[in-house]
């Protein structure tokens, strides 16, 4: 096996010059760098990463913990499939830094996380990114004291740097867009009430209505689940019946995510209501397989997963630099409002959508 001394001899330089080329810690002429590189290639020399990391105390490795691989088929998750896009955003930034991202998958088991972190420690990673499957408080204490960590799509109560979506701001902007089209009776089908996203988006929905001088009508808010369980479609059906039994029914329906909006499209059409001519419908997530293929195309708020991953990776790299300061509050990332054909101004004569659905059930 070739050594650094063999490379030096072949290139006609000193071993110290070869070391400078490998570690990039001192200026070397392009001519010398080319000679050393060609010598390494001809000898098949591969530098020992482990030896270099021990000497410099920098491995060039970043650990990332996710469930994106094992959860790739979990299309019924509360927020779509954020993890894979977060990983892609992080990878783009880490790659530019000339560091290497080591990805470990939880297999859907949180109890594996401590072992994964210990494995990362054994490989001398410089920092760790931890990605949650949806916006929520961190469900466990992460070991690995002394290793910089950044949380993505989650947060804790001890001030670990974290990056989360601006759920309140996103729903606020989306509701303002609906109000801007002239809607004053806006229903809201939320996701499960225990979700962090539901709590924050409800706050944004209320704020938008109140700032516009509109009444927040409890009769136009209904929680629904979209976990793929039995009876979920009937639950959505019942919620819409409740909305349209109002003396003054809604002219627009906000949905907790795009999958929910897709179900609403179908139910409204079965009841003879056209989207958007009779009822405007908006979603959340910008899950493009849904939002861009529905007819009409769905107005929705983007969950900026790739941007979250990129920002988290940059924060971690900043923490690894000598003069970086720690961020003690979560960084909120905003997405765009995607205005599409499902949102239009309400009709002056709104006869069709005041037809009560009460008493009807799904067949």
Task: Describe the protein's topology.
Layout: H1 4-11, H2 15-23, H3 30-43, H4 49-56, E1 61-66, H5 82-96, E2 100-105, H6 113-122, E3 127-137, E4 149-155, E5 162-165, H7 167-180, E6 186-190, H8 196-211, E7 221-223, H9 232-244, E8 252-255, H10 258-270, E9 280-282, H11 288-291, E10 300-301, H12 305-320, E11 331-333, E12 337-338
Parallel strand pairs: 1-2, 1-3, 3-4, 4-5, 5-11, 6-7, 6-8, 8-9
Antiparallel strand pairs: 10-12
Helix pairs in contact: 1-2, 1-3, 5-12, 7-8, 9-10
Shape: elongated
Task: Quote the CATH topology of the largest domain.
Answer: Rossmann fold
Structural class: alpha/beta
Helix content: 25-40%
Mean pLDDT figure: 86
Number of domains: 3
At the fourth CATH level, what is the homologous superfamily of the largest domain? Response regulator
Label the CATH architecture of the largest domain.
Answer: 3-Layer(aba) Sandwich
Low-pLDDT stretches: 74-80, 351-363
Any idea what the radius of gyration is? 27 Å
Largest beta sheet: what is the strand line-up? 2-1-3-4-5-11
Q: What string, H for helix and E for strand, traces the elements in order?
A: HHHHEHEHEEEHEHEHEHEHEHEE
Total helix count?
A: 12
Biggest sheet details: 6 strands, parallel
Q: How many beta-strand runs?
A: 12
Q: What is the CATH C level class of the largest domain, in words?
A: Alpha Beta
Query: β content, as a range?
Result: 15-25%
Distance between the termini: 73 Å
């Amino acid at each position: 096996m070739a050594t650094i001394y063999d490379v030096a001899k072949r290139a006609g330089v000193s071993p110290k010059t070869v070391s400078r080329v490998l570690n990039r810690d001192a200026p070397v002429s392009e001519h010398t760098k080319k000679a050393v590189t060609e010598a390494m290639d001809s000898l098949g020399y591969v530098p020992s990463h482990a030896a270099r990391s021990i000497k410099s105390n920098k491995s060039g490795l970043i650990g990332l913990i996710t469930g994106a691989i094992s959860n790739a088929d979990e299309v019924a998750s509360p927020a779509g499939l954020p993890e894979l896009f977060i990983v892609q955003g992080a990878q783009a930034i880490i790659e530019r830094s000339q560091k290497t991202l080591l990805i470990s998958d939880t297999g859907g088991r949180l109890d594996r996380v401590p072992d994964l972190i210990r494995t990362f420690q054994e490989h001398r990673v410089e920092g760790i990114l931890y990605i949650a499957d949806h916006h929520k408080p961190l469900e466990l204490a992460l070991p690995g004291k002394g290793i910089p960590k950044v949380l993505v799509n989650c947060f804790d109560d001890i001030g670990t740097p974290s990056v989360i979506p601006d759920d309140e701001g996103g729903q606020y902007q989306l509701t303002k867009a609906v109000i801007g089209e002239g809607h004053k009776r806006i229903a809201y089908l939320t996701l499960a009430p225990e979700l962090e996203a539901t709590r924050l988006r409800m706050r944004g929905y209320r704020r938008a209505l109140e700032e516009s001088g509109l009444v927040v009508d409890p009769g136009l808010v209904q929680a629904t689940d979209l976990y793929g369980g039995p009876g979920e479609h009937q639950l959505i059906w019942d919620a819409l019946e409740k909305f349209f039994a109002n003396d003054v029914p809604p002219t627009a329906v906000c949905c907790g995510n795009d999958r929910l909006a897709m179900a609403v499209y179908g139910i409204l059409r079965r009841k003879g209501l056209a989207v958007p001519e009779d009822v405007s419908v908006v979603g959340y997530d910008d899950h493009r397989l849904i939002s861009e293929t529905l007819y009409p195309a769905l107005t929705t708020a983007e969950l900026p997963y790739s941007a979250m991953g990129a920002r988290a990776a940059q924060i971690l790299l900043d923490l690894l630099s000598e003069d970086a300061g720690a961020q003690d509050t979560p960084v909120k990332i905003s997405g765009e409002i995607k205005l599409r054909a499902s949102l239009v101004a309400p009709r002056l004569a709104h006869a069709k959508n005041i037809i009560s659905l009460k008493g009807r059930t799904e067949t």
